[in-house]
Here is the input.
Amino acid sequence: MSVRPEYIRIVGTGAGERLWQLYGFSSPEDLVLENIAMAMNVYVREGDLDSAEARLVANHNEGVILVRASSGESGRRRFAIAHELGHWVMHKGVSQLIFACSEGDMLVDYRGSQAEAEANYFAAGLLMPERLAKGFIVQLYCRDAIAEMADYFRVSFTAAATRFMDLTGEYCALVVASGGKIIRWRGNDRFCERFWVKVGDPVGGQSIAAKLSSQRRVGRGDVPTHLWAVDRDVDGGIAEFCEESIYVERYDQTLVLLSAFE
Amino acid sequence: MIEREKMDARAWEALFNFVFPSDAELSPSEIQEALRAGGVNCKRVKERVLAQVKAAKEQETARAALEVAKARRERISAQVARFLGLGLEKSREELLAVIQAKVSGEQQVVCFNRLEKAATDKDLRSLLEDLAILDAFGEQEEQDERSA
Here is the structure.
């Protein structure tokens, strides 16, 4: 039996947000993930991990979360811990001993693996509860709002952008490009109902992203929708996306935010 | 929703007497009558106040548990060092054999086999450490329970 997508999202984020209520947290500074995990019988540590961002090893009573020591920025590390904690909270009934989760797993939504999606929604709800995150939602050109959101909630830009997409009512997608090609993308429900981005396609030469480099790292502008996506709506109506692109030298990747409204 | 300005002092007093009946100077029916006259839905108000009290108590317990967890984490962290470097001398095959022996049950084995393909030797060593920490963690918990 298939589970309704909105059910996965509501249950996942709800379980994460519930901890704010339970502990009476009022700001992200209250959220010490290592202590919250310990209160749930899960010990968090850093160590060697090449093939995953983080890993949960658990029996029925206790768990150990290992985060890759070289995980880099603290926002990425926090999301990885919250994601594994999501597995512990939501998949405790499953007698699976080990969850080893890659960077790709941390981006999965309900269109991918259900277990990974649930863990991601849990992490999003725990790190960025809707009640506080909604204050950051703007209609178009959302990069600055997302950057502020990432800073406030102490999460990565990607995690903040993903939460932003889930909460905005407008067409919105985040595309990741590397080596001149689209390597992954994620859109909100509204975007995905209408547009489709092809992984593996080359980044269009007319796009803002194509003009970025280590010398010019950010750019924004209006671009034709066909540069990035296939429009399923034959009648059109949306001719352009607001494209905001950021080149991240550390990962040699370009993050592309696409937004539009009718 | 009841608006504060719409309730006079008598209604407030009646409301508290209703929610905390042990302090009541009036009989329950008198209290309910006074509240009804003030336009208050007694049943709903009582449910909401009691729910808030329950949530506040749960929060107090959860926060206390968080403090205990913080101290417990420090105790475990102090012990973790003795598990680091486990399996350094072992070959990949030996590491796999030790880990597999600890992994039991059909579902776990399936999961482990999937992991095994992607894991590097470093990953297997840290997995061995995690399994040892997990065992020690369980023993620590039993000790904590006994001393409590």
Q: What stands out?
A: Chain A has a mean pLDDT of 89. The interface with chain B takes residues 21-24, 32, 34-36, 38-39, 41, 43, 45, 47-52, 55, 57-59, 61-64, 66, 94-98, 100 of chain A (CB under 8 Å).
